[in-house]
Design brief:
Two copies of one chain form a homodimer.
Chain A lengths: L2 H8 L5 H11 L10 H14 L9 E8 L15 H11 L3 H9 L1 E9 L5 H5 L4 E2 L17 H19 L4 E7 L4 H12 L3 H4 L8 H18 L6 H8 L2 H15 L4 E3 L2 H13 L7 E3 L7 H9 L15 H19 L3 H4 L7
Parallel strand pairs in A: 1-2, 1-4, 2-3, 4-5, 5-6
Chain lengths: ~350, ~350
């Protein structure tokens, strides 16, 4: 059995008994009923995911998957591909947005080279990044498939492998991405899987103007026409219009779900990875927490398709895992509500009139 | 000069030069322009409030002001007034929602008896709460003023005094409340100050049904008719249809603003306190951060009046300072973006095409 098959078999839905047990306690807390709203919904989910009334979430990592994209040759991004390895260096040196926000919540930042179009072997040898490079960037999806089906499987298995590697020391995962041009494959993925028009799901990425956005839409439409991805086959969608870091994110999600661990999904690119993962294994959705709603307009459509309601809405559009890091505080808060707040009986507080 | 007058004179607007300096650095960070959205807006505000490029926010306190309400005699709440002192005991024992959420972010919980209708002197003597009790609950505002103007001034000065007492050891304040029935005076305050109808601003509090909500609206309309508060005189509004803990919150806000310290406003009751404070000293708004939008329907109207956009929207309706505690993480995150993220020049990362 392959690593992917083995992982898919291990993914079970949330446990209803643990959900019920959590709900029963939360119903009795010293507050008006369910007065902490969505944090209490989240606490029920965490109990159902982890099979615990004290869900472990203190050991946290944001896994930032990096890769480059052949489609950048079509002029879909304001930044050149050389920024991808430069930003990997910035992550390693602690100077990026994700470093600051992971520090705030006490999370590790784990950087994985899934397919950066530059030689990062020195950083990998010194242990600063994990090397799972599939290739030096994808092929240009406007001309043919972004990668082979074998590469798509390898990307997902690399993500699963990273989740396993970290599993012994991490309770709560966050996804992250770095890859110049990667809103383009992400928009292609959501259009392919949901059938919603490219113009509706495509946004300005790092800051395109109207004419550049129009061009990006045409490039994505061309990629879908040339490749004809099968919307019911996540591996086919990933291979034809995806990216190596998107495959790595999908694998990380599947690997976390197989370990019954919650995984916070960051922004537009990470949620494209979640779409791929949920197309392959629908039950993995039970382990997803949508961290935020980004400025990128297709993000809302992704969340609707996944039936997830994001926790934060702060006009973020950075990626890297920054939204996931921010939302880790809310996951911790939800656990503390379940474990630290007294019931009416425990605290001898009078209840509401019935 | 009275403590109140002295405090009002010390409240200055945010400093534009420090705001500009922060904006200038944030413009150059290694990310697409302003890609961390509202956290970057918040970082500019924090620099303008604290006159610093490294705004101090690490020493945090949620100040939970407690008081009772004579209007509970009209049957406006599902819980009896005896729950107010019981919940104060719960705060002191660490078993309430605010304890769990303050623990998560590393904030102190400071409980102040502003006017609980029970003898809490034993807790005050042992140093577990601060005693600033104005009276054993307000008078019934449906029959006449909730308090005298002198008591209103005393409540606000007590809040200022608490801010001073804590000022040497606290950088970041959060407001909180406990008081059975206190959504009723809060709705009266927003109706009085904004002129919007009572039915529009009044919500279900701890869980009223339709008939109970209808009754609550009639009680508030009666209170406004009987008392005729002057919407331009915050002290008059507080005296006639307010509460002791709401006055304490207004004072805490004025005291924090006078110290140029940011103050996170919690939910519906805390924001009623902010309305009172901003009616007395409009510049204090420059130091307010709206932590969340609650389920209580008048909360949105309060934020519009104050021109504040809340950070979180999680269906909370608890009070106690719980939303303020949650949002403290976002304030810390905003500071870290300003201080820890490298600029393009520092990190030698290529910039976008112009």
């Amino acid at each position: 059995m392959t690593l992917l098959q083995e992982t898919l078999q291990a993914i079970l839905p949330q446990d209803q008994e643990w959900r019920d047990q959590a709900k029963n306690r939360l119903d009795q807390l010293t507050m008006p009923h369910w007065a902490l709203g969505r944090l209490m919904d989240l606490a029920v989910d965490l109990a159902g995911m982890t099979r615990s009334m004290n869900p472990p979430v203190s050991r946290k990592a944001v896994v930032t998957m990096a890769g480059d994209h052949g489609v950048v040759a079509e002029g879909v991004s304001k930044f050149p591909s050389e920024v991808t390895p430069q930003m990997v260096g910035n992550f390693v040196n602690g100077g990026a947005g994700i470093n600051a926000l992971a520090n705030q919540v006490g999370a590790r930042v784990v950087v994985v080279d899934m397919g950066v179009a530059a030689d990062l072997s020195a950083m990998a040898k010194s242990g600063k990044i994990i090397d799972r490079k599939i290739a030096f960037g994808t092929s240009n999806m406007a001309k043919g498939p972004a990668m082979t089906r074998e590469q798509a499987v390898a990307a997902i298995e690399a993500g699963i492998d990273v989740a396993r590697l970290l599993g012994g020391e991490i309770d709560l995962f966050g996804t992250g991405d770095m890859g110049i041009g990667n809103t383009t494959p992400s928009a292609a993925i959501v259009a392919a899987i949901t059938g919603i028009s490219v113009a509706t799901v495509t946004g300005r990425g790092t800051g395109l103007d109207d004419a550049q956005l129009d061009h990006k839409v045409k490039v994505i439409e061309e990629a879908l026409k040339v490749n004809q991805p099968d919307p019911h086959d996540g591996l086919d969608v990933l291979a034809k219009v995806g990216g190596f870091e998107i495959g790595g994110i999908a694998g990380l999600i599947l690997g976390a779900a197989a370990q019954r661990k919650p995984v916070l999904i960051d922004g537009f690119i990470s949620t494209a990875g979640a779409l791929i993962a949920s197309t392959i294994a629908p039950s993995c959705r039970d382990y997803l927490i949508a961290s935020h709603r980004s400025v990128e307009q297709g993000h809302r459509i992704m969340h609707q398709h996944l039936q997830l309601e994001p926790l934060l809405d702060l006009n973020l559009r950075l990626g890297e895992g920054t939204g996931a890091a921010l939302a880790m505080n809310l996951v911790e808060a939800a656990c503390r509500i379940l474990t630290e707040v007294a019931t009416f009986e425990e605290a001898a507080v009078a209840t509401a009139d019935k």
